[in-house]
Amino acid sequence: MPELPDVEGFKRVLVKNALHKTIDRVVVSDARILAHLSPRTFASRLRGATLVAARRHGKHLMAKVDRLMNGSATGFVFDEAEPRVLLEALQRAAALWRNKIAWGRLQRNGMLQDFSWDRSARRYVDLYRTTARRGEPRAWRSSRELAPQG
Length: 150
Prior knowledge:
By secondary structure, the protein is mostly helical. Helix content is 50%, strand content 10%. Strands 1-2 form a two-stranded antiparallel sheet. A hairpin with a 2-residue loop joins β1 and β2. The model has no long low-confidence stretch (mean pLDDT 81).
C-alpha cells in the first residue's frame, strides 16, 4: 500500500496531466483490485470517458469521470459546489443537447436506471450476508437472521 505523500503526488500528476482529457486506453495490471468486474468490462466503461476530478481519500486515489462521450452516461458530473464548475457542466449539457442522438441516448440511459428502494434493499441484504459469511463479530452475524431469505 502506498504512503500518503505518494498518493498525494500521484493525484497531483493525474490532475496536472489528465484532468478534462478523454480516456482512450485502459490497462489493468492487477485484476484483483476490480472486485466483481472483469478487466474488459472495466476498460469498456472507462474508454471514451473524461476525467473530471481526482482526490485522495486516505491512502486511496479516487477519480471521477464523466461518461458523456462514450454513450453510457446518465447525467452530468460536477464535483465542486462552485459557480465555475456548475457553468462547465451546463455548457457540456448545452453542447450535448445540440446532438439529438447523443441527447436521446442520455435520456434513455437515465430512464433505464433502477433507483427503486427494492434495488437498494437487495444490495444492503447482500452486504449483510457477505459480512456474516466472513465471520465478523457476533453483532454483525445476527443481521443474517433479520435479512429476508430468498
